[in-house]
Design brief:
The protein is mainly alpha-helical and about 375 residues long. The chain is about 55% helix and about 5% strand.
Length: about 375
């Protein structure tokens, strides 16, 4: 069989996987594409269906406009975006139940090894605009689900992973007491349900994937798995004013307390490993997060009051310390009355028990 050309590979990947991922349709993964195929697609491949490409572009612009004033985007993926889409396709395929059979159980491990090797060859986004573009393609990756169906009848039951049960099992439903139980499984749940893959190995591959799309990493930080951590890539992105602004706008669309807990835990981890430079970059994010809450509180309760020494308290307290210092040094561009009100709002968190612990660690 002749080897598929880069254009043919991109057509299959776009029509069945990438376009429905962006639009919210039924995603049908291709067979594992592998690293060579993923990297071979390059910048020149363009989907041939102009109508679908137009729909996808409009959907991506809507995603981008939640975070930035963007009116246009490059319609077709660039080479790195094709490669990332291919690796996400292969991540999903690595969990396929068909590999959980004799003589095939080693396949998922090989697929993940190739994924990690390929990701190492994909450069991080060169700038904030490139990070935003990658995010518009991949922002819904954790929405990928597989629906498993358990069919029960009077003499037995059967489970179908990601496929519909045969019609013969559903006939005479009242006589045979047929019952269907449909259970959606998220991307991170798939390794534990019918696959032959090690969940920890799969999670490490997902971490490596997120390092290549740092805005997606930050914009999904409330996910239960894999737990959000500060990495070189997302810190580099957040170290710029533009990157930090996009991250903060992404946080604003997520549950406030869950965001603060995730940021606090990740920042505590940096303290524990004495990653000093990373700590200060992370605290800049917390500072701007807390200033946004202080200037525009999102509820009738005080968003900056720290009642318990928990992960959320770390975000609020560290951010308040940094914000108070920043305003004292620069005045922050606020008028005198506004500056006084913000400092008053920061005071409880900046002098809390957690704040004193953070001050001790910062001065150590």
């Amino acid at each position: 069989m002749a080897k598929a050309s880069p254009q043919e590979l991109s057509e299959r990947l776009f029509s069945s996987f990438l376009a429905p991922l962006v639009l919210g349709g039924t995603v049908i993964p291709n067979k594992p594409l592998g690293g060579k195929n993923a990297l071979s697609i390059g910048d020149l491949a363009t989907p041939s269906d102009p109508d679908v490409l137009s729909q996808v572009t409009l959907a991506r612009v809507r995603i981008a406009r939640r975070l930035a004033a963007v009116d246009t985007l490059r319609p077709a993926p660039c080479g790195s975006e094709w490669a990332l889409a291919a690796m996400l396709n292969d991540l999903v395929q690595a969990t396929h139940p068909g590999f959980n059979a004799a003589f095939r159980r080693s396949s998922p491990k090989r697929i993940l090894t190739i994924i990690n090797e390929t990701l190492a060859r994909i450069p991080p986004p060169a700038n904030v605009g490139e990070a935003l573009s990658r995010h518009t393609w991949l922002s819904r990756m954790f929405e990928i689900t597989r629906t498993d169906v358990e069919v029960q009848w009077w003499t037995g039951h059967a489970t179908f992973l990601g496929t519909d049960p045969p019609s013969r099992l559903l006939v005479w439903p009242e006589v045979r007491r047929v019952k269907q139980i449909r259970t959606p499984r998220t991307l991170m749940e798939l390794p534990a349900h019918g696959s032959a893959i090690d969940a920890e190995v799969f999670m490490r591959a997902v971490y490596n994937f997120l390092r290549k799309t740092p805005l997606t990493d930050l914009a999904t930080l409330t996910r239960p798995f894999p737990r959000f951590v500060w990495t070189h890539e997302n810190l580099a992105f957040a170290s710029t004013h533009a990157g930090r602004t996009l991250a903060l706008r992404a946080f604003a669309g997520l549950p406030r307390e869950t965001v603060d807990a995730a940021l606090g835990l990740a920042t505590k981890t940096l303290f524990s490993v004495r990653a000093t430079r990373a700590v200060y970059t992370a605290i800049d994010v917390l500072r701007d997060r807390v200033l946004m809450l202080a200037v525009r509180p999102t509820s009738g309760t005080d968003p900056l009051r720290v009642e318990v020494d928990d992960d959320r308290a770390w975000t609020i307290s560290a951010g308040a310390i940094a914000a108070r210092h920043w305003i004292a040094m620069t005045e922050g561009g606020f008028g005198e009355d506004e500056r006084r009100e913000i400092l008053r709002a920061l005071e409880p968190a900046a002098t809390s028990v957690t704040a004193k612990q953070i001050q001790t660690l910062l001065s150590a």
